[in-house]
Structure formats: C-alpha cells, structure tokens
Amino acid sequence: MKIEQQISGAVKAGINELYGADVADNQIQLQKTKKEFKGHLTLVVFPFLRLSKKSPEQTANEIGDYLQKSTTAVAEYNVIKGFLNLTISCTCWIDLLNDINAQPEYGITNATDESPLIMIEYSSPNTNKPLHLGHVRNNLLGYSLAQIMKANGNKVIKTNIVNDRGIHICKSMLAWQKWGNGITPEKAGKKGDHLIGDFYVLFSNKLKEETQELEVKGMTKEEAEAAAPLMQEAHEMLRKWEAGDKDVRALWEMMNSWVYTGFDETYKMLGVSFDKIYYESQTYLEGKAKVMEGLEKGIFYRRDDGSVWADLRGEGLDEKLLLRSDGTSVYMTQDIGTAKLRFDDYPIDKMIYVVGNEQNYHFQVLSILLDKLGFAFGKGLVHYSYGMVELPDGKMKSREGTVVDADDLMAEMIQTARDISKEAGKTDRLSIEESNNIARIVGLGSLKYFILKVDPRKNMTFNPKESIDFNGNTGSFIQYTYARIRSILRKAAEDGIVIPNVLSDTTSISEKEENLIQSVADFAATVKEAGNEYSPALIANYIYDMAKEYNQFYHDFSILHEEDEALKAFRLVLSSNVAKVIKSGTALLGMEVPERM
Known about the structure:
- The chain has helices at residues 2-19, 49-52, 56-70, 90-101, 133-151, 167-179, 185-188, 192-216, 221-227, 229-242, 246-270, 280-296, 331-345, 360-372, 406-423, 432-452, 464-467, 475-494, 511-533, 536-556, 565-588, and strands at residues 29-32, 41-44, 74-80, 83-88, 117-121, 155-162, 276-279, 301-302, 308-311, 319-323, 350-356, 382-386, 389-390, 460-461.
- It is an alpha/beta fold and 597 residues long.
- The radius of gyration is 29 Å and the shape is globular.
C-alpha cells in the first residue's frame, strides 16, 4: 500500500535522525490498527529499543512526534505500551483511492516472459464413476489456486491426470458386459459418467453376494474377495487390457468416451478448466521405463521375486514398491511417468499437486523419488493437502452409491437459489432467461464460497441449506452487495451524474469512509498473502469482511441523495472501487457476480 511505503520511509529517516542508526525494511513492522484502538496503522517499536535505549512508551512517543512533524501523512498518534497507533490524514486516503481508481486491475500482477512457470494438478478423476462432492472441493481449490498464482504474476498451467485404467475401471466394464444389455447413455437418458457409475455400484453389490457365500464356507473377507469369480474375471479383463486385446480395448474406449463427455459437462457447469489433460493409460509405461532406468543406475533395487523397490530408510521413511513381481505398475509408477511427460512438455519451475490429505505420505515419497531421478522440480514439489468434505449425516462411499453427485448438488443449489429469489420477490421484473441465469450464478457462487472460505487444511461439513443466506457469511451476501453497488451506479448514470476520474483531495470524509478505503486497499496485500500461503480462504474471508463493511457504510451514509456534490462523487467512486475489488476477488474464487439481483 502506498501509504505504508510512505510511513516506512519516514520511520527509517526518523530512526536515523533520532538515534543515529539505519534500520532494515524488515525491522519496520506496520500493521492494521486493532478496532478497539484509535488509528489506521500501528508501528511496533520493540525492534528499536536497543537503538533508543529507552522504554517502549518513550520510544514510541519520540517516533510519533517525529512523524507528525516530518510528514503530512500522519495527522495524529497515540501510544499503547510498545505500539504506536498512527491516524493517517484525510488527504492521503483520497490520494490512495485515486490511485486505486486509476488501476482497472488493482491488486493483480500480470506475468511476464521471465515469470516462473507453475503447474497445478487437480481433479484427477477415475473413469468408473461421476464426480462427487469430494471432487467438487478438489476442483474448486485447484482452479482458485491457479487464479491466485496467476494474479501474483506467475505463468500457470492447469493440468489434470485422468485415472482411466486399472482394476476399478475393469469392474465397471465387466458389469456392463454382463448385465448392460447394450445400454448406452442415449438409450438410458443419462449422462455417461452416471451410467458407468451405476455399473460400478452393481459390480460391488454382485461381488458382495459372492464373497458372503465364500465367507460362509470359512474364508476370511480378504480371501473371499480375491477368490470370488467376479474378481477373477475383472483381473483377467485387466490382463487382456494390458496385453492389448482388441475387444477389451474397444469396450474400454467406448465406455471411457461416455465418461469424458459427462465429465466435460460437469466441468463446464462448475466453471473449471484445464490447459492440458494427461491419461494414466499413456503415462504408466513412461513410469515403468523411468523405474527401470533408476534400477540400472542403482537408485532402486530388485527383490528375489522380481519386484522393484526404493529404499528410503536413509531419508527416515521405509521401502517403497515401484513395480510388482509380475511387472505391473503401482500409483507411484504412474506419477513418476506423468511427471516425466510434464517435464518434457513444459519448463516447470514449481509443481503443485492438489490432492487430499490421505495422500500426504505418497507425495512425501514422490518428491524424494523425483529428486533422485533428476527432475528439477522434484525436491520443491508442493502437495497442496486438503481435508475431506463430509455431509451432516456422515461420510460418502462410492462403491455403495452413497456419494453426493456433483451434478445433482449443483442442480440443487441452483434450484434453491431460484426458490429463495422468487420467494423474496427479487426476480419479479426479470425475464425467465435472466432469472435462470441469476439463479445459476447465485447457486454456484454460494457453493463455491461455502467450500472455499474454509481453511483448505481442515475437514469440513457441507450443508447446502446454510450456504445460501443473503444475510450470512455466504457467497450470495457478497453477490448481493455487488449487485446493490451496480444498481447505485446505474441510477447515477440515469440521473446524469458524471463520476470524476480524479477526486479532489480537499474533500472531508469520515473515519468510517477512511476505514473502507483502507479495506479496499488491503486487496493487493491479501492477494499476495493468499499466493504465499496457497489459501483461497484468505481471499474469500477478505471479500466478505469488505462487503460487510460496505453495507454498514451504505446504511449510515447517503450516496445519491447527498447534497454536497464533492462528497457524492467521492462516495460513488468509493462504491465503484468496492465493486471492482469484489469482482476481482470473486473471480479468483471462480465465482461470477450478477449485475442485478
């Protein structure tokens, strides 16, 4: 913030003049003054006590006196122990608002040719079921993180790895082959991913019947599942797939194509996208080749049964299987192969994997293995670990068909938004098309905000009913604030009010208005912090706090009916910039904002 830079420079000069010493920038700690104290910015004076050789209070008063005399930015000050609370002059706030107003993309830093390239992997679905609530959190976090990293001046590649092969895929294929009777998405009137998901659940139910019969005969649950005829057939299908059997491959391609069409519809509705999609069926062989290369170089070792392992006990971990005794790959092999292809395709400076916290150990191992294999980004890879999403009534299980489907969830959110808006009479004067679009924007915005406002590291419970509330800490409250401001600006235009590009710095404004300017200005620092912390939650909660502050301002002050023309212009410019920052901030969360509600 320009004001902070001005104050910091004055503090450095003051320390030199008062105590004959130079201080580094990182020793000057300026923070927003706590609400219970008077002031805008607070200087922590404890780092200067060794220079002043005086008490915290005396040091703070000396620095305060110097600042008040040497810079017009400081109107007054007060001291609370070792904290110097500074009240910034009205002129500075007007200048700051003019500065923000002159920047259409305030707080956003665009990439240059020299910017680092960050690749972010998210989504990572399996082609045996539709996307569910857990995928929704993953996709929203990944997409938002990409937007935030881009806003911090990085080049960003959004990528997805589709798990399109393996035993779980064969289960759906076998069930369709046995009991599908040639059904297609068109014949069933269903999205392809939903149809395939039904067959995955059907396989699990049929397998459970077989295993229960074997358990009655004395087998353990694990023994029964391995010996069950259905499981044997699924493994045989996988062997045929890996051998390139034409019929199995044709079935696999047909069923996967149905799923991809379904996924694309879900991604489009959710508002997320990818720059590059990789497929496990294309990467696992690359992974096997890299593992064999590591074996030849002595990085890995082979056991007597022919399996290949990495010994990580020297790193405080254990031994990790990379290739089974029959030569088939494991997830780690696939991730090594995918990393190899990505490194071939792009000059990656940093790789971020958006994957749930149950995979923490996996990525700890992957980082070490990639580094041993010579990948530059291996040691510094980031596992963006997030907590699980649960429902008010418990966890979800794909095999039992008890997941919350992403498509159903989005449809429910949109319908809820439509019902609430209709009940409140907010859509009475709108066309059906505009009303439906607003319901989509509000419903999906509420879903995204509710998920992204939570610290990503925490587990969370998603409650659709709580997520749409026009008065709570919700996306719809923020969207309504934006729509309210846009309505004010439209009315000003209709009344012929010309909003100036530059405000006069002689306008006298209130403390509440100064605080609101400070809140708008904080957007740039919040974007930077969100990038450093990999946290969309920081953006989400910042926007909510600012929207709440604006609504208090709107309640307390007249805008269009203000008689003082200079003050009216100021409040319109302030409102316009609040809306600008709300729109920029919500875009970083993947949210849209409606022009009217």
